[in-house]
Write the structure tokens for this entry.
Amino acid sequence: RSLYLQEQGWRVLRFWNNDMLENFEGVLFVIAEHLEVAPPP
């Protein structure tokens, strides 16, 4: 699944469930960073 998305020009970000539960703001920060630097597919 990830390979197919990458071949289509998408970047796949993965996070541990624990990070989502205990560091949600940090996860959002990482996502926001990638949105700022990633060109549209």
Summary: The longest helix spans residues 24-37. The mean pLDDT is 88. Helices lie at 2-7, 17-22, 24-37. Residues 14-41 form one domain.
